[in-house]
Amino acid sequence: MSKVLLEIQGLRKQYGIVEVLKGVDCTMREGEVISIIGSSGSGKTTMLRCINMLEDFQGGHIRLEGEEIGYEHSGSSRRRKSEKEIARQRALTGMAFQQFNLFPHMTAAQNVMLGLVKVKKMSHDEARVLAEKWLDRVGLSARADTYPGQLSGGQQQRVAIARAIAMAPRLMLFDEVTSALDPELVGEVLQVIKALAADGMSMLLVTHEMRFAYEVSSRVIFMNQGVICEEGDPKEMFAKPRTERLAEFLKTSSFN
Amino acid sequence: MMDLSAFLDQIWIARLAILKGLGITISISALSIIVGSLLGVLVGLSLVYGNRALRFVVRVYTDFIRGTPVLVLVLASYYVLSTIGIDLGPFQAGVFALAVFCSSHVGEIVRGGLQAIPKGQTEAAKAIGLTFNQTFAYVLWPQALRQILPAWVNTAAEMVKASTLLSVIGVAELLLRTQEIISRNFMSLQFYFLAGFLYFVINYGIEQFGKYVERKTAVPS
C-alpha cells in the first residue's frame, strides 16, 4: 500500500452556533481518488475548504504528508499559523472551484503562470513553457492567449484545473467543478479529471455526478449532517448501501 | 459684427489675465486631484481592510466630508484653520479643502471597486499560495482599477468645477479673473461664456483621456 498522504482527525468546524463538521476522520493514501458525496449542507464542501485553510476550523487535526495544516498545537492550546506559512501550505494543494474563479484580466496562460512566477519563483520563460504544457494537456493549447471572458464555461474550468495542476500540488481538491456548467460541457471537464486520475494524481472531489464518482473513484465518502456516514468501494456502496441515509440519498440522486 | 471684433479686442487685451487664471485653475485642479486621489486610495483601503477602529474613524471622516458642501470646506480651511494656528494662504487652503473633498469621494469609489470583486478571486489566489500582498497587487488591484476608472474621471471633472469656489477666498483662478475682466469691460455675457467654454474644454479633455485609458485597459470578452 502507498503511504499516507492526508490524515484528518476529529475535524470540527462551526459557524457561530451552527456546527457544520462534527468530528470528521479520514485517511487518504497517495494516488487515491476519493469522491465525497452527500446532500447540500452535509459539510462536504466545508471539509474540502478546511484542507487548504480557506475555512478556519475549531477542532481536530489535518495533516498533509505528516505536516500539521493551519494550526500550531502545544499541549491543549492551538494557534493559527502565520499567513506566510499558511500561504506556503496552501501551495501544497491545488483547488478547482465551482465558479472557476479565473482571473479575468489575465489570459489563460497568464492565469497559469501567476503562481509559478510569484510562488514558485520561476522565470517568466520557464513558467510560460510549463503553462503551455498544461494548457495543452487540458486541450487548450490554441487558447493560451485568450482571456477567460472569451472562453466557454467548460474551457474556463479546464484552464482553472491547469492553473492548479501546474503548481505540482501533492493533492488536488475539486469543489463541484461541473455544477455551474451546461450539461453538454460537463463531459470535457470530467475527461480532464479522468486523465489526471490515470496519471496517479491524488484527488479529493466533491461532486454531484454520481455516475462519475462511480467510475473514477477508488473510494467514496458519503457525508451526512457533518459526519462521514459511510465510506468504501463505490461499486459495493452504490449496489448495497449499508445505511438507510445513503440508500435514500442514492434514490433521490441522479444515479441509477 | 462690431460686437464680435470688440469682444476679440477685449480678449486680446485680457489674454494674460485669462491665461494666468486658466493656469491657476489647472494647477488647483491637478494638485487637488493628485493629492486627493492618493489620500483617497488610503481611505478606500482603510475602509476595506482596516480593523474595526480604523474603519470607524475613516467612515466618520468620509461621511462628514461628503455631507458638507465644498464651499463650506473651502471657507473653513481658509478662515477656521488659521484660528488654530495653521496659517495657509488662500491657494494652499483652497487646494487643501478640495483635496480633502476629493479624498472622501475617491475613498468611496475605491472601496466600492474592491468590494465589487467576487470573493472567489481572493480564494483562487489564496489557493495557489499567493500571500495577501501578492493577491492584492496582482489579482485585486488591477481589477479594481478598471472598475474605478469611470467614476474617478467623473470625480476629477467635479474637482475642476469645484475649483471655481476658490474665487470666494480670493484665489485668482479663471472665474475670479473673468469677473475682474467683466468689471472693466462689462461684457458679462461674452466673458462668462468664454470661461464656461474653457472649463468645458478642460473637462472634455479629462473625459476623453479617461475613455482612452478605459479602451486601452479593457479586458476582451
From TrEMBL, chain A:
Pfam families to which the protein is assigned, alphabetical: ABC_tran
GO CC term, one of those recorded: plasma membrane
Protein name listed in UniProt: ATP-binding protein
Chief place where the protein resides: membrane
Membrane topology according to the record: Peripheral membrane protein
Residues in ABC transporter domain copies: 6-250
Alphabetically ordered keywords of this record: Amino-acid transport, ATP-binding, Cell membrane, Membrane, Nucleotide-binding, Transport
Chain coiled-coil ranges: none
Family to which the UniProt record says this protein belongs: Belongs to the ABC transporter superfamily.
InterPro entries hit by this protein: AAA+_ATPase, ABC_ATPase_HisP-typ, ABC_transporter-like_ATP-bd, ABC_transporter-like_CS, MetN_ABC_transporter-like, P-loop_NTPase
Gene Ontology molecular function terms on file: ABC-type amino acid transporter activity; ATP binding; ATP hydrolysis activity
Subcellular location per the Swiss-Prot or TrEMBL entry: Cell membrane
Superkingdom of the organism of origin: Bacteria
Gene3D superfamilies: P-loop containing nucleotide triphosphate hydrolases (3.40.50.300)
UniProt keyword annotation of Metal-binding present: no
UniProt source species: Pararhizobium antarcticum
Automatic annotation (TrEMBL), chain B:
Annotated TM spans: 22-48, 60-81, 188-206
GO cellular component: ATP-binding cassette (ABC) transporter complex
The keyword Amino-acid biosynthesis is annotated on this UniProt entry: no
GO BP terms, alphabetized: amino acid transport
Residue ranges constituting the ABC transmembrane type-1 domain according to the UniProt record: 22-210
CDD domains reported in the protein's UniProt record: TM_PBP2
Alphabetized GO MF terms: transmembrane transporter activity
Keywords, comma-separated and alphabetical: Cell membrane, Membrane, Transmembrane, Transmembrane helix, Transport
Coarse class of the protein's main subcellular location: membrane
Membrane topology: Multi-pass membrane protein
Subcellular location, record wording: Cell inner membrane; Cell membrane
NCBIfam families on file: HEQRo_perm_3TM
Family of the protein in this entry: Belongs to the binding-protein-dependent transport system permease family. HisMQ subfamily.
Protein name (record): ABC transporter permease
Organism, scientific name: Pararhizobium antarcticum
